[in-house]
Amino acid sequence: MIEADNLSKSYRVADKQPGLMGTLRHFFRRKHKTVEAVKSVSFNIEPGEVVGFLGPNGAGKTTALKMLTGLIHPTDGSVSVAGHRPFARKAAFLKQITLVMGQKQQLLWDLPASESLRINAAIYDIDDTEAKRRIDTLAEMLSLDEELTKPVRKLSLGERMKCELLAALLHNPKVLFLDEPTLGLDVNAQATVRQFLRDYNKEHEATVLLTSHYMADITALCERVMLIHKGSLIYDGSLDGILNQFAPYREVKVELAEPITNGQMDTYGEVQSIDGRVARLIVQRDALTRTVDRLLAERDVCDMTVTDPPIEEVIGRVFTDGVAD
Amino acid sequence: MLRRTRTLLSVSFAHMLEYRAELFLWMLASVMPFIMMGLWVSASSDESANYALGPLEFARYFIAMFIVRQLTMIWVIWDFEWHVVEGRLSPYLLQPMDPVWRFIAGHVAERGARGPFVLVLLVLFFVLYPDAWWVPALRDVGLCVLAVVLAFLLRFMMQYTMAMGCFWVERASGMEAMTFALYMFLSGMVAPLEIFPPSVREIAMWTPFPYLVYFPSTLLVDSAGAAAGGLDIARGFAVLTGWLVVFTLLNRWLWRMGLKHYSAMGA
Fold this sequence. Notes:
Chain A has 11 helices and 13 strands.
């Protein structure tokens, strides 16, 4: 459904130094630099798949989404979505896709969302009866009612996002590009949006490519994730696979009979915290059995648990600790 | 197509009505024709003055110009620029309809919202200056309506073509400011072209500017009189249509080139 082959995008951006001199220099002699936002990214997404696209700010996620939707032309490589070249922007292609950006809106700010929905129904050639049926169905799934007839500017962020989703999905797109769809929403609104996306995917067998900074979105919706870092794709696989590839360690929580003193546990692994009789250690996976044996033999252990580190922590380490480099 | 047009117009009309106060203020800000009228009526009332038009003709010309200006007011360059800079163009580009129809619908709907205010000002004007009252011939109204529709499209296409600069430099409204002086003088906003030196007038009539204001205004006042005074109406429509075709073709070419260059900033 989505195929990207060596997809690349470079930008020329103005490089301005701060201060008055920088401003004057910038005015008279403009300097530019080329930024490689996306570097030779290749992947293939099957129909009905929900894929998480993860990366820190500026990693190239949004640029990649813009190329996949046809908003911008790639510098190099090729891309095909639903059998179309996106940047040709054919009506047959545009009727199959949608792009939702959490920090941007397509609804008319001063009018109720219902007016934007009327326009969308006309643009996508959905007749009035069918449009009403779809609006009713989607509104019920999103728990929307009178929000649709209030001016958009009067809605809360969560209500507005739900209206945005309704407007973006009115034409029953087969491919959904979602860029931070839960950004800034409270926990309840996030949960509603996640549940809605899950139901929509199930009902329409839609293909979804989702970026989010909230791991809960990814773990709730995606079985497959792609990690992008500095424009390059550094991982494409299952969520569990990330642990194997980027977290070759386990977290060992051990409770001893006596209070633990500083330095006492250093020989067993990387000490994360000590709280009275409880210590949290990071232990390399290949040394795990040996370490557990030593702890049981050398210390008076009351309780011990071995767990995978939280996925958020692992991905955070991938991007911040330079694991990806 | 019909449903799209109807929906876009009705929603755009609703959108415009949200800004009633702003609309009224904008309209008050466009009373320049009345100021120019005052100046020219006063100047031509002087018995030593030897202008091609008398005080009454000046008054009628400027009131016709006021109507024409209200019907051909265009701001698409600023609107488009805002959409590009704020990242609002991107959602429109992902829909199976050229965004130009949204901008056109916005402009057309605004005429409907502006209409009642214009009528009030016109009534007020003729109450204060009843001598200027005239009933245009049906033929003049027909010619003026045709000229106004074409002038609206030409002015829209001229601005929209300059707006394409946003794809390369983000802010293109400077280009409109650059051409505004030409528009002011050659369109007949400052003075009707009858009082220009013949050579300047002849050159001006080959540019698009007189057809934006002067041409439709003159047709509304008295097309037969204007023709007798040397205005070639058929040639006027031909030049107007020619410029419309030129700007439409140029616009479509720049649109295609611009989309390749579009960076979808802010979205």
